[in-house]
Amino acid sequence: MRLLSFASKSFDTDLADFCRGTIVTREIADSVAAILADVRHRGDEAVSYYAAKFDGAKLRARDFRLKASDLAAAAKRLGPAERKAMTAAYENILAFNQKGLPEGWTGKNKHGAMVGEVHHPIRRVGLYVPGGEVPLVSTVLMTATLAKIAGCPEIAVFTPSNPQGRISDGLLAALDLVGVEEVYRIGGVQAVGAMAFGTLTVPAVDKVFGPGNAYVCEAKRQVFGTVGVDSLPGPSEVMVVADETARPDFAAADLLAQAEHGSGREKVFLVATSLELIQAIHAEMLTQIKFLSRTEKTQRVLAEGFLAIQVRNLTEAAQVANYVAPEHLELLVKDSAEKTLVRTITTAGAIMLGNHTPTALGDFTAGPSHVLPTGRAGRFFSGLRVADFMRRTSLIRYDRGSVRKAEPVVSAFAAMEKLDAHGRSVKIRAL
């Protein structure tokens, strides 16, 4: 266990060094750039090549897209318990995100002119859903549901297949539930390239959404500008802030839950107000990990990406959280401290409050999307919401009376900026 003390003189440097581990290496960046360039140049041929190389799936271009009947058949094969759970999660996600649908408005400005905003769904969106060994069925609901609420006319989903070209029934059933019909069994950087540049088989999208590993996240960064991207949600992160009221077994379970993603680049933070509490939680982790099915990969994440931080009080804990900007933040603290921390911690992707709110509830069923910023991107990105699937256009309408009121202002700015044609275009309307 790596342990830092907030009181240490080197704390700021040590914490920055640990967080810097999320920065993409030159090797990853160069590899991604080469794959994207190949997809842009060779299209479907390159996509097939990398699907075989990385996923072991021998796919021809005509095999990329699944049939609608494949989704319906998978839904029928799903067991009653799974179907019930999926529907329950979908209903919560739908109810929560419908409240975030932006509305247009109009009003009058100081000149008496009409101003306002209108919102339109993005025409064609591409949703990346991690698959393979850990098919993220919940990511379908956490992305496609929002796109449907926004009213996006075209929703294309991309997810990697296994070597036999199959995708999990749960993932396909979730797509069927939400009502998505355009699904491609393509994953990795090649999927991001196909979304961004288009191929003969895959029409390009306008914006790319969804989480992925370090390579997928870097691919989204590199194609930004050619297409839009939602944010840069990469390998999972969690920070547990604990005081004397925290249950060590609960805290340990939640730290292990995020570590079990197992890519090796996850970040797991424990911030606690005493060394004794850190030791108790760590002891629980060592006990509980023995009973996990993904023990080896979880241990690798903990060996490289687990950091315990001892703070003297929750004010210091808030400072740590604001610097790290964790994807998931759990506050296992006394009730009287919750409101203060929620008010002072301003960079977390999602905050879970209290001993009975594990991150897994947010991952699967609470309502807010689990597509959240990682790698300190929470300083400037927020979690996925319906508005991300829409674009805003402002409206302005002046008449002769209001343009007369605005003319002196425009003339002054035109003079300051030496743009006399700007000033004239208003002045001739105010005569």
Please render the helix and strand layout as text.
Layout: E1 2-5, H1 11-19, H2 26-42, H3 44-55, H4 68-77, H5 80-98, E2 105-108, E3 114-121, E4 124-128, H6 137-150, E5 154-158, H7 169-178, E6 182-184, H8 188-197, E7 207-209, H9 214-223, E8 228-229, E9 237-242, H10 248-259, E10 267-272, H11 275-288, H12 295-305, E11 306-310, H13 314-324, E12 328-332, H14 335-344, E13 350-353, H15 359-364, E14 390-397, H16 400-416, H17 420-430
Parallel strand pairs: 1-11, 4-5, 4-7, 5-6, 7-8, 9-10, 9-12, 10-11, 12-13
Antiparallel strand pairs: 2-3, 3-14
Helix pairs in contact: 2-3, 2-8, 2-9, 3-8, 4-7, 5-6, 5-7, 6-7, 8-9, 10-11, 16-17
What is the share of helical residues? 40-55%
Low-confidence runs of at least 5 consecutive residues: none
Rg over CA atoms? 25 Å
CATH class of the largest domain: Alpha Beta
Q: What is the level-2 CATH architecture name of the largest domain? A: 3-Layer(aba) Sandwich
Please give the domain count.
3
User: Which structural class do you get from the secondary structure elements?
Assistant: alpha/beta
Largest sheet: 6 strands, parallel
Total number of β-strand segments?
Answer: 14
Tell me the β content: 15-25%
Number of helices: 17
Q: What would you call the shape? A: globular
Strand arrangement across the biggest beta sheet = 1-11-10-9-12-13
Mean pLDDT: 95
CATH homologous superfamily (4th level) name of the largest domain: Nitrogenase molybdenum iron protein domain
In the CATH hierarchy, the third-tier topology of the largest domain is known as Rossmann fold
How far is the N terminus from the C terminus?
76 Å
